[in-house]
Amino acid sequence: MYQWRKFEFFEEKFSGKVADDVTGKIQCCSSGKGRIVLGCDDGTASLLDRGLKFNYGFQAHSSSVLFLQQLKQRNFLVTVGEDEQIASQPPAVCLKIFDLDKMEPEGTSTSIPDCIQILRIFTNQFPEAKITSFLVLEEAPPLLLIVIGLENGSIYCIQGDIARERIKRFKLQVDNHSDKSQSSITGLGFRVDGQVLQLFAVTPNTVNLFNMHTQTPTRQTLDQIGSSVTSVGMTDRSEFIIGRPEAIYFYEVDGRGPCWAFEGEKKFLGWFRGYLLCVFADQRTGMNTFNVYDLKNRLIAHSIVVKEVSQMLCEWGNIILILEDKSTLCIGEKDMESKLDMLFKKNLYTVAINLVQSQQADAAATAEVLRKYGDHLYGKQDFDEAMAQYIHTIGHLEPSYVIQKFLDAQRIHNLTNYLEKLHEKGLASKDHTTLLLNCYTKLKDVEKLNEFIKSEDGVGEQKFDVETAIRVCRASNYHEHAMSVAKKAGRHEWYLKILLEDLGRYEEALQYISSLELSQAGVTVKEYGKILIEHKPAETVDILMRLCTEESELPKKGASSGAFISMLPSPIDFLNIFVHYPHALLEFLEKYTSKVKDSSAQVEIHNTLLELYLSHDLDFPSISQSNIDEGGNDPALRPSKAVSNGKMISDKKDVNDEKGHQERRRKGLTLLKSAWPSELEQPLYDVDLAIILCEMNDFKEGLLFLYEKMKLYKEVIACYMQVHDHEGLIACCKRLGDSGKGGDPSLWADLLKYFGELGEDCSKEVKEILTYIERDDILPPIVVLQTLAKNPCLSLSVIKDYIARKLEHESQLIEEDRRAMEKYQEESSTMRKEIQDLRTNARIFQLSKCTACTFTLDLPAVHFMCMHSFHQRCLGDNEKECPECAPEYRAVLETKRSLEQSSKNPDQFFQLVKSSKDGFSVIADYFGKGIISKTSNGPTEALRSNSASSANDF
């Protein structure tokens, strides 16, 4: 005991005396419900509030109160005391239960709780003996279990609802020693473990354990040595404490546990918040000492010399000692901060750490103690032990506080250890990962670097920031470690960046890309395809083919071809990687188009292919070429013996380039035709782009095809005109100018105009053109003369025969028109005479038969001016028109009506004038039909209103 450290973790809160209202000698006490109950030898029970202030008292027993206990679940007080009987009989020992919430009716001088039950303890079956201990257990309200220890070694038990006297009495026998002093029950204690109830019982010779959960309680002897004084207690872990002169013993259900050798007679034992309380008599000084022991940390938390102690109890978070002279001493525990300050002043950091851990302080408080201890060790230059303390603060102490202390190069091992622990707990940031990896590389500790990077348990994925680890390893030339991290984390872009940019292992990079999933492989190729194309063009094209086609993936997927192709990446997505390598791009797109016929991006693919096919030169330099010397010459291309004849090699190269150019143009024309089949209105490429490409690259064949497919015939002949291909021009017009085959006859007029403005002798071509113009009557002769008159190299003999034939033809037409005019004039004269005759002379009807039924005409009859006669019955209701002449008359009226309707639509008239080869004939036809010759304000006025705006169209 004298080797234990002493600290003042407790302090005296207050002291004083028990209130004068408590007159008798205090024999027992009980705490709970925020108050203390004292039992005295005069039979009174006194209730004290906080601060030991007297609340009220009452006469519990007429003689004395031996034991009492407050219940925790109900506000009941259970007392055992002596009550006076008839003078000739000794006092009877009774058990009483008081309901402290209920008071007896008013009229009494004092407040007396309602006594709800009184029981005699001793009966004929349970003979009387001196009571040495008393204990109450609330099993399940209102059920109680009261155990009473006797001097003769017996334990009387009363179980049940005592308030209603529904009880069961039974007896437990501990020891039946002849010497009562050796068999007296000196201490009792309940141990509740779930549904299991056990009772500790102590005698001077034994320590016993009763299993109360069985029908008949069974006894088990735990120790053959007991205690002769009533100094027992229970810990918060349900351990039974016994005080003997040589030591204090702890008992569990399986026997004796630890013991603590504290000398002296133990008068009182208790347990308070993990502390052992003990009042013992020091034989050397004859004084009583009250100690508070912290058994976990092996220290005395408080020690004070006191007078003779009467009672010890705990309430209001304090320890209360009641002395024999009725003075009181209240002792309370200091706060944790005060206790730690006390320890820090003495540099007892180990004790402080044990203290906060034993009292289950929060992690932040524990970390603060560890930090101070670490600072203390660091100040003493005990760096290893200081780091051990700092490591325990991870998660609560800012890592930069520790890192800053150990940044000295001589402490790099300690810093490495701290950073490793920081990563193990998943609390490391990117900067911490960077610092740890730099430590490994500074120490050249490849083994630990491997353990940190290449751990196979998969924990490494969560230990550190992957990108930071890769970047640091690359910077330190630990490329294999960086690749390992990237591969484990699935950071394919970093893995390939190291392979390609740092190591130049292109074959391995291609194999790695081939092993990736379809989507991920496409992403990596987009990012690093330029490097791969530069060094491994053929292999890269093969990988792209596998990515963009279903040749290797479709059997694995088991999906339909159309659905799978829609999931594949498009070749258009990879065009940017070929920016300096058009030959590889051309090879890739040709392979793709030969493999996939119905790609969703075929328009873009065909556009790109056309651009490549029609380009004059595909060998433009790459901007990635960095091995050019300062003079602009590539050292690898300097002249040597093998290329001494530079001119010959240059000529050979030019020939090969020209052949390649012609071959690409041939493929380009094939693509233009194959991608625009006759059944499609629009081609599988951008027509405008194709025309621009053909124009830029002077690709005449492609232009002619496109213009012809688009029915831009004038642009077709314009192409021939630009190159003065007269033979091709005439052949083209023969093919495209035939109106019977959907051609445009006006091409001959354009062709004639071209030769008329040519300024050179083209008699042969003009004669041939005039043949087709004359055949289809495309132009009037006057226009032909005006057009050819512009060419000074042409003589009149070129068009002599044409003009003669046209004049003869015109003469024939004039003669035919003259004869038709005479005929119409004669018919008009006859009709006028007939009209005049009808108006002035009577008409004699001489028909004797009906025109309809051919029977003899009889009355009633109807005669028409057209000299047709009918029975009235044959006409029916239609008596106003001749059935024979009516159809012809209606046709004339309908024609007249349609002509009048046409005259009301001037837009139609002007449209006919514009579209006709001879506008004058349209106007003459309108005059001939009498549509615009009337003087009315109808169609004539309409035509006049539009004539001004359309004068230029005649």
TrEMBL record:
Spans traversing the lipid bilayer: none
Membrane topology, from the record: Peripheral membrane protein
Signal peptide (UniProt feature, chain positions): none
Record Gene3D superfamilies: Tetratricopeptide repeat domain (1.25.40.10), YVTN repeat-like/Quinoprotein amine dehydrogenase (2.130.10.10)
Keyword Protein biosynthesis in annotation: no
Major localization listed first in the record, in broad terms: membrane
A cellular component term, taken from the record's GO annotations: HOPS complex
GO BP of this protein: endosome organization; intracellular protein transport; organelle fusion; vacuole organization; vesicle docking involved in exocytosis
Protein keywords: Coiled coil, Membrane, Metal-binding, Vacuole, Zinc, Zinc-finger
Subcellular location: Endomembrane system; Vacuole membrane; Prevacuolar compartment membrane
Domain RING-type: 850-885
Repeat region (CHCR), residues: 390-541, 559-764
UniProt keyword annotation of Translocase present: no
GO MF annotations in UniProt: protein-macromolecule adaptor activity; zinc ion binding
Pfam families, sorted: TPR_PEP5_VPS11 (PF23356), VPS11_C (PF12451), VPS11_N (PF23266), zf-C3H2C3 (PF17122)
Coiled-coil spans in chain: 807-841
Quaternary assembly: Core component of at least two putative endosomal tethering complexes, the homotypic fusion and vacuole protein sorting (HOPS) complex and the class C core vacuole/endosome tethering (CORVET) complex.
PANTHER family, sorted: VACUOLAR PROTEIN SORTING-ASSOCIATED PROTEIN (PTHR23323), VACUOLAR PROTEIN SORTING-ASSOCIATED PROTEIN 11 HOMOLOG (PTHR23323:SF24)
Protein's job: Involved in regulating membrane fusion at the tonoplast and the prevacuolar compartment.
Full protein name: Vacuolar protein sorting-associated protein 11 homolog
